[in-house]
Amino acid sequence: MADLRIIFYGTPDFAVATLKALIENNKNVVAVVTAPDKPAGRGRSLKQSAVKEYSETQKLRVLQPANLKSENFLEKLNDLQPDLQIVVAFRMLPESVWRLPKRGTFNLHASLLPQYRGAAPINWAIINGETKTGVTTFFIDDKIDTGEIILQKEVRIQPTHDAGDLHDLLMKAGSQLVLETVGLIEENKVKTFKQTVNQPLKTAYKLHHENTKIDWNSPVDKIHNLVRGLSPFPTAWCYLVNGAQEMKVKIYKTTREHKSHQEAPGNLFATKNDIKIAALDGFINIEEIQLPGKKKMEVKALLNGFKLNPNSKMR
Which one of 36, 186, 211, 270 counts the least CB within 10 Å of its CB? Predict the structure, then answer.
């Protein structure tokens, strides 16, 4: 049987690992579809996606449509005569695109579907204090992350993991799951099953300014999990009120202390080496922080050159 003609869709580093696995295992990737180059940095020079950068090193054909429904793009896809399309960390495809190949279009999602459908499954699994998550391959249908499941693989979440750690674990597990999925499709051995909802669904909502802000009136576990679930990106944040000055700060790493107290949530306590903040049922110790216009730093380094007012607080 001739090799399946594969079109790969993806944009960030998470997708590069899967594309690399396909190439290194001699899969016939006839084209790669990725996001258009975007202006970035102070000079506003055009920045290529991670997938495009890797594709060019492998001399793969790269398509960068601004409009996935354009006739020009659809003509190019048809000319490529794909047997299979694989989607990893890309935007939603129109039906005219995902229905195109005779062997279907499947997606790799970084959760154990149906849980954590949506834009940020890695972050929300940690924010919600999960101890396990995983990766899923499924055939795309007309809704978001609802198609019939092909394969799943579970991944454990350790208490020390942040979103960056889990990203890397799922990236590796996902690339292998895609290879297994392609193998099943090549051998006509795919047996899918429908997504069944037998418990309350947790959604991986898109992260934005409001749902990444720390609420110091929360329990310490909730705050700690929010910080590690948003680190290193997009990062949990709050306001530091230091005397008459108020500034937005990012918090990258914390530890927690369960302890009853009478302090108002947000009250700040500092020594020469550490900063801790009162929360609902204990204290949060700040390990890594970033002030406006500064680099991320350990708290001990910050305290060497930054003066905190005795009545400073977080809000």
Answer: 36
Write the burial class of residue 28 (CB in 10 Å: 0-12 exposed, 13-18 middle, 19+ buried).
middle
For residues 18 and 107, the answer to whether their CB atoms sit within 8 Å is no
pLDDT for 305 equals 86
What predicted TM-score, i.e. pTM, was given to this entire model? 0.95
CATH of range 220-314; options 3.30.360.10, 3.30.70.100, 3.30.430.20, 3.10.25.10 = 3.10.25.10
d(CA 161, CA 308): 30
Please give the average per-residue pLDDT across 70-90, as a whole number. Answer: 98
How much is the pLDDT for 39? Answer: 85
Question: Would you give the DSSP letter of residue 278?
Answer: E
Rounded Cα distance, 54 and 201, in Å: 36
Residue, of 37 and 39, whose pLDDT is higher: 37
What's the CA gap between 27 and 6, in Å, rounded?
A: 8
CA distance 246 to 184: 57
Q: Per-domain residue ranges for the chain?
A: 6-186, 220-314
